[in-house]
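Researcher: I'm preparing a figure for a lab meeting and need a structural model of a single chain. I don't have an experimental structure, so a prediction will have to do for now. The sequence is pasted below. Please return the structure as tokens so I can convert it later.
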Amino acid sequence: MILASGLSDVGCRRGNNEDRIWMDLELSAFALADGMGGENCGEVAAEIAVNTVAAYLRDNPRQENSWPFGYDAGADLISNQVMTAIHAANRRVFESSRNGSGCNEMGSTILAVNVTGKTATIGAVGDSRAYFYRSGALSLVTSDDSIVAKLLDAGEITTEEAEKHPFRNMLTQAVGKSEKLVPHIHQIQLIDGDRLMLSSDGLHGVVSHDSMCDILRSSDDVADAVRRLIAEGLKRGAPDNLSCVLIEYLNDA
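Model: Understood. Here is the structure written out token by token.
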């Protein structure tokens, strides 16, 4: 059994919301996107990305021509579905950015999640994040596609330097920015009470890891936890749009 709740808020300084979330409890499928590109183009990119992922996960795997970007024989069926959904979103945003609409610089992050049985499959591009919560501990599942993340991994800067780095918001890949990208795929085996939290950088950029963990630890209800996470971000000034989707797995056995 899956429980889920999600919220998106414009934040304290922005005039419009360029984040988008999607949840389908019947499919146990979810997505979160954070758009970029100036004017209203960011929200257009995020909308296209989320809608394309939703449409693919909902319909295409049942059709014969389900693998327009190829099939990775080294990955399982669900991983291929999530990867293909993200590739399809990338193609749609990329093509839309070049159709003369004035949004030629638009792009988006994407998180796509499918829970099948006890396995959660997560696909990610950009710096929106997926976290895993179990038994009072919160861990980061995804890695940011950013220059700062690469510098951190290489040991060239410290965590403290990363928080103030002038390139901290510069992504190394995003949906719609190029014809090809490489989605990161993660799989987690779930047990009763596990939670997955998806967040845009407007949330995890202002709410500390420990604070997010404390809220999840003290909230038995997913909807209450999401409300409290968004409220904490707003309390801290939320300079960007902030979004959260919280998924909880309950073992039926």
